[in-house]
Fold these 3 entries.
Entry 1:
Amino acid sequence: MGRTIAELSWPVTTERLSLRPATVDDAAAVFAYRTLDEVGQWLTRLPRDPGAWRVRFAERLPTAIVVERDGAVVGDLFVRVQDAWAQHEVKERAVAAEAEIGWALDPRSGGQGLATEAARELLRICFEGLGVRRVFAICFAANEPSWRLMERLGMRREQYSRADSLHRDGRWLDGMTYALLADEWARGR
Ligand SMILES: CC(C)(COP(=O)(O)OP(=O)(O)OC[C@H]1O[C@@H](n2cnc3c(N)ncnc32)[C@H](O)[C@@H]1OP(=O)(O)O)[C@@H](O)C(=O)NCCC(=O)NCCS
């Protein structure tokens, strides 16, 4: 069993930001920017109804971190620890070996490197705090701000899939996976 974000020490601060596990009281602040088309167009869910969103937000608390600047929520991060693929005989060694991460930033706080700053800290949390050996993230290939962020973080484009991901607008879009290993992260610091 790997560690969970609830077991770590919070808040975690960076130069401009403070990160902490989300609570249900953050639902409204996150709803405010995730309902914007420029944000929601790339996310798995586009919230519509505040009440339904609050229920959904409560369900995803174990994987949700909010990012605050000067006491106000400016974005949120996703982190989910999971087992790596492994052959049967060694599967115990692959338990909780990797984490998927993600992000959303209020566009009013965009273009200042805040998402990069938060996600860079999230990598540290994943490798040092949660103890995973690999971190990965997926995105639509058309989501250039997101993959540019991953490249700023030093993550490697490992997969480019042709028309594998269905957008809610009905189009099958190209998808990408980026990843970074713990030893690569440590060398890059
Ligand atoms: C993905 C997302 C978080 C990126 O936001 P962003 O504002 O581009 O990212 P950052 O906060 O790191 O800012 C980077 C920009 O600030 C600039 N910048 C300014 N100061 C900076 C600094 N100190 N450090 C790094 N970048 C800085 C960078 O040059 C970059 O601008 P550019 O893209 O014009 O080159 C945002 O677009 C978003 O929330 N999208 C919707 C949700 C989404 O797509 N989530 C991911 C689904 S896979």
Entry 2:
Amino acid sequence: MSGTFVGMPAFPEAAREAVDNQTLRGNLRHATHTIRAKRAKAVAEVSDWAQLREAGKQIKDHTLRHLDRYLVQVEESVTAAGGIVHWAADAEEANRIVADLVKETGEPEVVKVKSMATQEIGLNEALEAEGIRAYETDLAELIVQLGKDRPSHILVPAIHRNRGEIRDIFTHEMSEWGRPAPEGLTDTPAELADAARLHLREKFLRAKVGISGANFMVAETGTMVVVESEGNGRMCLTLPETLISVVGIEKIVPTWRDLEVFLQTLPRSSTAERMNPYTSMWTGTTDADGPRTFHLILLDNGRTDTLADEVGRQALRCIRCSACLNVCPVYERAGGHAYGSVYPGPIGAILSPQLRGTASAIDASLPYASSLCGACYEVCPVAIDIPEVLVHLRERVVEGGPVTRDGNKVVLKPAKGHAAERAAMRAARWAFSRPGALRTGQRLASRTRRFHPRTLPGPGGAWSDTRDLPPVPAEPFRDWWQRTRGGNDDKGTAK
Ligand code: SF4
């Protein structure tokens, strides 16, 4: 079983350990810089990238605005095509539905396509508790599972591992899960891939139940879409007799025409490919081909709460390309585990606190896990303004205190901590709304500048220990402006 994120400390504490780990930083720097450069090249090839980005944004916004209607359409289309639709309000319900469905088949094991939604709900652990073994079949997910590790990247969950570490994991752990690694396995990519292929092949051929997520659901026909690079997904989606797909309710696109936009932007943004090597699509069940039974579990798990927030809802546009992770200077140094969630990096910093609420230390700290440089927004293929949402969530943490979910209701609890910050903000509001007092304060500060300390007292010391306090000028800017330019008065009107 993979490790879990339960009980993670706040981001600054978790990140400190990662920042000190030279191997991890080296692995991350190499991987993110490589993917980032390739992505930039792949995007530059497309002359209408800006229009595609805007189209993706608008399709997602439109769908989210009419999500109630499109969800019903998906249910009708999937049912008409021979599938069975289930609704899950939260992780517990989704896990229970999946476990019951697998038990009905009498099978003790399942094969899995890489899926963020099933990681989000901790499905592998829930199945394990019911005596069902789930085998991850994506290469990176396999490395994470064999290493009893946690994923640290959306697209490349084992990005924190180098080839030598992967060879050691395969050599020591594969035999516990099935076919052992070949004798004398080296760390060359071809040998590692071959060992994984042999190990997984017996599982594909034996499996009677497959579990997947979906990158997209096309409402007009009830078609599920999975894009991938290795072909393991195609095996899991076609060989087993029963297929169970757990899909977040935000994954809908209304029509095939809409899908076309994302099939152009997703591969270039994620793997820097012009198109995905494998694009698998299925609509219910088909006689004499593929699974005999298809179950779709539509997962909420905090998404309708997120949808209720006018600023925060844009996070639901995300198509999980991971471009924002690969350009983020904070992610590059802190690594994925510090975010305490299967969604690391900039998107994790805005998605996890909305899906889970900000009651825990880690979730309340995530909106601060950013320098607000804006690189994530620049590369996002659906134009999610991540810095805007981060600031919005910071406001929520400081002003409203932790937000927890109580059933379907968002409840504001009284804030603990941040008292000094709130007091400082109140003082600033008082001063900035009284121009006369502000001017007197600025003049006083200029006249007494020689006596100002070079470091801040109390908790402010942590800030000034690593920075120089900006010197107060000999003359306030407004006085200088009036003296030299005959400028504006305090009301902003020209004299
Ligand atoms: S927020 Fe944008 S850039 Fe980041 S993973 Fe989602 S779609 Fe990709």
Entry 3:
Amino acid sequence: MAKTENIVFINATLLDGTADMEPQVDRAIVVENGRIAAIVPTGQAPVGPGYRVIDLAGAYLMPGLINMHVHFCGSGKPTSAGDAGALMKKLDNPLGRAIVRKLLRKSAQQQLASGVTTVRGAGDPLFADIAVRDGFNSGKYVGPRLIAPGTGVTVPNGHGAGLFAKIAETPEQAAALVREIAAHGADVIKLFVTGGVFDATKVGEPGVLRMSPEIASAACAAAHKLGLPVMAHVESTEGVQVALAAGVDTIEHGAPMTDEILALYKGAAGTQLPGRKPSVTCTISPSLPFVKLSPEQTHSTEIQKANGDIVCAGIIQSAREALDNGIDVGLGTDSSCPYVTQYDMWREVAYFAKYVGVSNAFALHTATAVNARLLGLGDETGTIEVGKSADMIVLEKNPLDDLSALSDVKHVMCRGAYLEHPKVKHLAELDHDLDWIMEQPVD
Ligand SMILES: [Zn+2]
């Protein structure tokens, strides 16, 4: 943990992260030993020695954002994923691994600077995310709370093979690979159950089932035996069915549902980690650029564009069906995908409100309190409450009025470490196109 001091934020307009949050004016939030020690009217704030007092002059203080799906190895510039795979093989040596670690650390720090205080990795090369997490936890570097999968589990010719996942050919190999990843110190196991947009060869094939039900089940059972939850890349209805029956805890991306799938989400299979019900992680950010931009802009083929359209519609429909049926929906960006930067969680929150059709308050609540609960961190973070970790951001404008207020984070505090005016390194070309996408109507 980074060194923390006791801080009192005064004159804050508090948004506490709960489902029906309303701005609470003139609040003082007292932070001691990295935790929220008290929330009182500004007039009752402790101002004696031992406290650094920061006057927010009415600015909005809310829980730090939580991003449930991030690859740290890319910037979001639309370059070919194939090149990255070849590059990663060259980097599998001591110097190369140090380069990868630094790359991942910088990405995680961009997430933090943009207001993300907790981030779950979704698969990166060479177990580097685990080393980065340990560097943050020990206080060597300032960074967000990081939930690290180490590397993913895939099958021959499966999504992520050789890049951010290792290959299992049989159920026995899958179980052994899960135990190996856990031994490296992973917090979660990532499976690649179906294909993705970039490795599809035909229109309509982005979510073709690649992992057999037997391999998925063996991987989930091995993970759960070690107390680890399982997240899975799934982009088709068939894939969701297989993944939920096997025991996957969080479906990443998602696809249109059936009645059987609804029952599985409600726990019908009984295969998930004890105490957990499956949820779906909505990721509109990586799919919307395929829909709105030209194949030249996203560096994709016509087939990839067509599949991108299918995946995007499926993700949005899945999130709507989930909410209509009382199934939890989390939010993540899939950073590193073309047009998904390490600093745009706010766009996913805004897309969720706009395309799935929820209120700004519910979108903010999802990106904070709901995501925390889905990660098993509901008692630790996600709301501004006494006793919780001091994970918070300060905004000049009210995000309940306009979610783009989240794009301008004035200050960040993560586990009590205070970052005043954190700097985000913007990619101007991407910002330009993404701002254009944000202006387009829902059609
Ligand atoms: Zn991903």
